[in-house]
Amino acid sequence: MNSDRSRRDFLVGATAAAAGMLAACSPAARERFFRRHFQELTPSEIDARMRRLKEDYDRQLGRPTTVSARAALPNTVYGYALDLSRCIGCRTCVYACVKENNQSRDPQIHWIRVLEMKKEKGIDFEGANPYYDPATVPDPDHFYLPVACQQCRNPPCVSVCPVGATWQEPDGIVAIDYDWCIGCRCCMAACPYGARHFNWGEPSLPAKEANTNMHVLGNRPRPRGVVEKCTFCVQRVREGRYPACVEACPVGARKFGNLLDRESEISKILREKRVFVLKAELKTEPKFYYFYSL
Amino acid sequence: MEPGDRSEEPAVSLSQSKALVPLLLLFGLGVLGILATLLDGHSFVPPEGAAANRAYGPADFPEVFDKDDALTGLEEARAAGLAIPVPGPPLTEGLYPCSACHADMPTNPVRRVVDAHGDIVLHHDEENRWCLDCHDAKNRDRLRLASGALIEFTESYKLCGQCHGTQYRDWKSGIHGKRTGYWNGAKRYLLCVHCHSPHSPAFKAMKPLPPPLRPQYLADQGGSHEQ
Question: Per the CB < 8 Å rule, is B218 touching A107?
Fold first, then answer.
């Protein structure tokens, strides 16, 4: 009897103490502790979370930021096409992407990887060289194949995620909830395109270089220990703008638009050019197409 | 080993070593062959401390990334009511209108290499073409189509499209050339001559931005895997 009562007393006391400590925490800390999956949040909860994220980033970067949770536009599925006849391998897109999407500078993370391939071998991933650094590009014996997230219609990364931290949005963008990712990197093993990148170290982003126009599922600064990848610049495209790489490309090799709009550039390319996708045999069904205009 | 055994060693090893020579040669060749196969087609890792081992960022290239002109000219082009919203052509400062000089100069219609504009070297089917195939002899401030029709410099795409029909068609539908602005709204087109010099249209080779860091040079953040 005595021992039972003392155990009950202990449990009651411990619960009360825990509740007291939680009550004493700031609302932000409480929210972080009882965090729920992004897709389960009600609109008002999303607003509250965006406010807290904004406060965090304002403090972290020392200047006003905007953190949007803008949802997918109706009747929109994004598609991308890249003209391999035009790409010269200059890597301007790589660094424009880093600037737009607040990737860690050091340790370095690039969402776009440009592969140099021998013309005589065709598309050969095994023989591809991402570290090419000649005095000038294009090299007459090579062509260049930039690879980022292929935004698959049947994404293996989403199937394998054990916690549902990555999913496909209604506009086709494969998104990641950085607050829900546990860093197991199963998605990286599942991705046949090497498009996902892990924050092994604490990401470094100089405050003055940060892009303050952020989306919660896109370019907001990531914590250590989560996976990130190309989102078609979700923060830009849901405002109607082109992705940063499209606007940075000096040769106009990158094309973007709404697959559901028959008059969009991407739809015209699918109709008028012979396009292909990478590793089509895997049935991932990318929405990132490659074509040769020449 | 017994000391007595040594006396026989040189004789034995001498005869054996003669037999070993071709074997050793074969072995050496094999090793070289394997090394050559391993190194074939793979560039060497840059030495420690080489520039290629630095983590470059966009801030290292302000000349490329500090300008943000994706939306400039968008509204102006729309307001100007052009058939295709293009910013003005990149005319050389101080040279246009051409008539400022050419109005007082006699026209020599004989096809020849002209060196009056010293910086212009025609490298655009120069065997068959010259200045007055595109520039109008009488009105120097206009361009001239094959039909004889005169067009403004702002519509130079019509001139280019006479020969480059597939590119013209692709450009009009947004497949050829660069578009900036809004994928679902106002787009800024560029004229052919914004990217291709009309007198030497082939793209010039350029220095690529630095390659990604090889994994062994990624910053050591002192995490749990620190050695």
Answer: yes
- The verdict on B221 touching A (C-beta cutoff 8 Å) is yes
- The CA distance from B132 to B108, in Å, is 10
Has residue B17 got a pLDDT over 80? no
Query: In this prediction, does ipTM exceed 0.85?
Result: yes
Q: Does A133 touch chain B (CB under 8 A)?
A: yes
The whole-model pTM stands at 0.84
- Written as one string, the DSSP assignment of B89-141 is P-PPTTT-STHHHHTTSPP--S-----SSTT----SSTTT--GGGTB-SS-TT
Higher pLDDT, A23 or A130: A130
How many degrees, rounded to 5, is the angle at CA A218 between CA B68 and CA A259? 80
SS (H, E, C) B161-186: HCCCHHHHHHHHCCCCCCCEEECCCC
- Quick: pLDDT tens for B99-146: 888 888 888 888 888 877 878 889 999 999 999 999 999 999 999 999
At residue A231 the predicted structure's pLDDT band, cuts being 50, 70 and 90, is very high
The number of residues in chain B equals 227
Sequence-distant (6+) residues with CB within 8 A of B109 are B132, B137
Contacts of A113 in chain B (CB under 8 A): 212
CB contact under 8 A, B173 and A272: yes
Quote the minimal CA–CA distance from A96 to chain B in Å: 7
Residue B11 has pLDDT above 50, yes or no: yes
A130-139, A157-166, B157-166, B184-193, range with the lowest pLDDT: B184-193
Place of tokens 């010039």: B204
**A138 contacts in chain B (CB < 8 Å):** 205
Q: Measure CB to CB from residue B178 to each of A76, A127, A252 and give the nearest one.
A: A252
Residues 6+ apart with CB under 8 A from A57: A65, A67, A212, A214, A220, A221
pLDDT at A151 over 60: yes
User: Do residue B195 and residue A134 have CB atoms under 8 angstroms apart?
Assistant: no
Q: Which of B180, B209, B221 has the CB atom closest to A202's CB atom?
A: B221
Pairing of strands A213-215, A66-68: parallel
CB contact at 8 A, A136 and B209:
no
B34 CA: distance to closest CA in chain A (Å): 18
Minimal C-alpha gap between A120 and chain B (Å): 13
| Residue the block writes with tokens 């005869």 | B15
- Residue among A215, A291, A219, A280 at smallest CA distance from A255: A291
Question: How many alpha carbons lie under 13 Å from residue B109 in its C-beta half-sphere?
Answer: 4
Among candidates A95, A113, A224 on the partner chain, residue whose Cβ is nearest the Cβ of B58: A95
Between these two residues, A128 and B16, which has the higher pLDDT value?
Answer: A128
